[in-house]
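haha ok so turns out i had the wrong file open the whole time. this is the CORRECT one, sorry everyone. sequence first:
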Amino acid sequence: MFVVQSEMILASWDSYSDEHTDTDGWPYDDESYGWHKVQRDTQTWRAFEPVRRSARYLLATARFQLQHIAASDIEPRWPWRLSELAQAYDRLEALRAEWAQTREAMRTSRPAHEEFIDALAERNAEAWSYLNAWATHGHALLDLHAVALKAPAPVAVENPAQQPAADRSAVRR
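then structure:
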């Protein structure tokens, strides 16, 4: 879901940016361009929030699945993509913790509304590259999962202690 939402957010941003910058990429109106960038960052952070809550579990599951599918079924970039996602997640969690501290400090100092909004926009801007990493590489989790679902189930190793008594004598030597 996040990948689709982030693609829509990025497509909207690209469209806006193309229309509101010159051929060298400089915005016609810095203030309006900056405001739209803030909106992009905020929308992307919000879209990621449901994924964030289970991201650690998703990554752990993907790593486990990667170890249990045939090497011939593994996309060579999956390990790298999982590493990128893990690093981005760790950085996003650090930013979230920093933001919680900033919010607490602001609660006691009572800054102007604009200062709060600016601090939040700064946090979101700093998060953009990590959120973009999830938008760019997040589909690897889905692709890997699809392959893992098609993989044959692992063969169970029989426990001799659970075999019927008649069969146990053949197992013991």
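Helices lie at 2-19, 30-52, 55-67, 78-109, 113-137, 139-150, 165-171.
again sry for the mixup
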